[in-house]
Amino acid sequence: MIEIRAKGIRFGFDARTGLLDGFTVEDGGHEIALLHRAPWVGTEEITPPGTPPHLTTLGGDFFCAPFAGSQEGSPLHGWTANSPWDVVEQKAGRLRARLRRTVCGATVTKELEVEDGHAWVYQRHVFAGGSGRIAISNHANVSLPRGGLISCSPKSAWETPPAPPEVDSARGRSGLRYPSRSTAPDRFPGIDGSVDLSRFPWNPRHEDVVIAIEGREHSLGWTAVTRPVEGDLFLSLRNARRLPMTIFWHSNGGRDYPPWSSRHFGCLGVEESAAAVLRSHSSENDLSGPGALTLVRDGEAEVRHAIGAIWWPSGERVEDIRVVDRAIELCGDRGGFRRLAFRTHFLN
Predict the structure, then answer these.
(1) Is the pLDDT of residue 272 over 80?
(2) Residue 73, exposed/middle/buried by CB under 10 A (0-12, 13-18, 19+)?
(3) pLDDT value at residue 46
(4) Phi, psi of 61 (to 5 degrees)
């Protein structure tokens, strides 16, 4: 594991799958480490034959291309999450790595940076060459062993994909209806009545995926997950005109077969995406940006995203996030407020 650090922030890089692991921020005299790690990771347990590499190292934050469905025969979540990376640059606060194989003919480079006094990992993925359109996603996994509150920038609709994650009841179970759609996340159609998707958990044992479609009226897309018991906060920022969807993966004991084995609890996937392939009721025209990344045969296409973590002792829900001069301002629903240094040009 390679460690990259700056003053008050650090993370590890697992080159086997391009995983950002061990993300830790020092804030308010506290060390905040809120990304998930599956119970079999870091043990001597051997995962079943055929298990995709990204499941063997499941946790942290990883980049998916092609995301969701398979292209070029890729495993689930694509080659970027299931193939080795070569580190081509490593220095204080910065890492560059290159995927050993191409994606739809494109060479993929990953850039991860931290900065003194900033609570963010700045992520950039660059596709050089290639052809076609591919679904993409940044896939952070937030650890919620004692529950959480989910907030996000305004959405036009919430919907489930055409089919649940597990279609065989002998292997797993879901708590939402598929496909379904709602404009109110706190009243989403569930199997046993309406479900409040702004809270985790809302079911004792389930595996569910829900798509939040960004509203058109703004460009800053954000997701904030409060952990009231721990007193901290996960943050995710993106350009909503380029990543117009947030896909939430609720994994809470809903899969019974190895390596899950009915023991994978308290994981919320926050997947900032351009992945119209997953939609059910909406069309790509309903999105605030393209539903896939278009590769440029003789040029480059890129994806930018930032994740952060702070001490948030009030445990309140985030009501709004806005960009100000060289900073991000967070407002809670009970008066909480933080101003955080941020590279405000980064997402443009």
Answers:
(1) yes
(2) exposed
(3) 93
(4) -145, 130
Q: Is the pTM of this model over 0.70?
A: yes
Is the pLDDT score of 70 beyond 70? no
Whole-number Å distance between alpha carbons of 337 and 327: 13
Tell me which long-range contacts 94-98 makes (C-beta under 8 A, separation of at least 24). 94/4, 95/2, 95/4, 95/13, 97/13, 97/15, 97/18
- Dist. CA 266–CA 255, nearest whole Å: 13
For the segment 161-190, the average pLDDT, to the nearest whole number, is 96
DSSP 3-state assignment of 186?
A: helix
Phi and psi for 41 in degrees, rounded to 5? -75, 135
What are the C-alpha distances in Å from 84 to residues 15, 17, 107, 335? Answer: 6, 5, 13, 45
Cβ-contact 120, 8 below 8 angstroms: no
Nearest partner of 340 among 222, 205, 212, judged by Cα: 222
- CB of 177 closer than 8 Å to CB of 197: no
What residue spans of the chain are helical by DSSP H? 53-56
To 5 degrees, how large is the angle CA 253–CA 208–CA 103? 110
CA pair distance 61, 21, nearest whole angstrom? 7
- Tens of pLDDT, residue by residue over 316-329, are 999 999 999 899 99
| pLDDT of amino acid 51 | 94
